[in-house]
Amino acid sequence: MTTHLKNLFSEVQCESAQAIAAIGSYDHPLLVLLKQTLTDQQASLRLLLDELTDQSNPPLSSFKKECTHVYHANEVAMPFYESWARAVNWVPDESAKIEQKLGNSMHVIHTKLEEAAEVLEKDYGHMEVKYVIPTFYLPATK
After folding, report:
1. What is the spatial distance between Cα 99 and Cα 89, in angstroms, rounded to a whole number?
2. Global pTM?
3. How many alpha carbons lie under 13 Å from residue 120 in its C-beta half-sphere?
4. Residue 12: which CATH number?
5. What is the DSSP secondary structure assignment for residue 91, as one 8-state letter?
6. Is 24 among the domain residues?
7. Can you give the residue range of the structural domain that contains 16?
């Protein structure tokens, strides 16, 4: 369980770092907000991965705060990304050239977080994770 979960969150961390690198020094206001949100998410991912690495089967309570922050940061980041993508289609901006790369990274981040949510729900139970992970990441079968 922990290895698979750790791999999923590691992939999120890697994609997040790639997105931050792609944004670089572009100064579009929405990209600045997105970059800060992804940077905050990175900090929580580091703590979360440390906790998953230190213990073989950690209790959810040991990484609940970091996990919640990772999902919340993604909830905040996605609208920034989507708004920026719409904006650069309306008004030409030099940052438009990273749209595809950034879009791919944001999609992978979201997909991996959905996969991690399924693993967490399976391993810890729906009642334990329902206040940690936003419901739209969890399978709709509940």
Report:
1. 10
2. 0.92
3. 32
4. 1.20.120
5. S
6. yes
7. 2-133
What is the pLDDT tens value at each position of the chain, 142 positions in all?
578 999 999 999 999 999 999 999 999 999 999 999 999 999 999 999 999 988 888 999 999 999 999 999 999 999 999 999 999 999 989 999 999 999 999 999 999 999 999 999 999 998 899 888 887 676 654 4
Cα separation values, 60 from 14, 33, 51, 80, 139, Å:
23, 30, 10, 29, 19
Q: What angle do CA 21, 25, 29 make, to 5 degrees?
A: 110
- Whether the CB-CB separation of 40 and 76 falls below 8 Å is answered with no
- Rounded to 10 deg, the angle between the 29-54 and 64-90 helix axes is 160
The answer to whether residue 43 is domain-embedded is yes
Domain count, the chain: 1
Q: Can you say how many angstroms the Cα of residue 52 is from the centroid of all Cα atoms in its chain?
A: 16
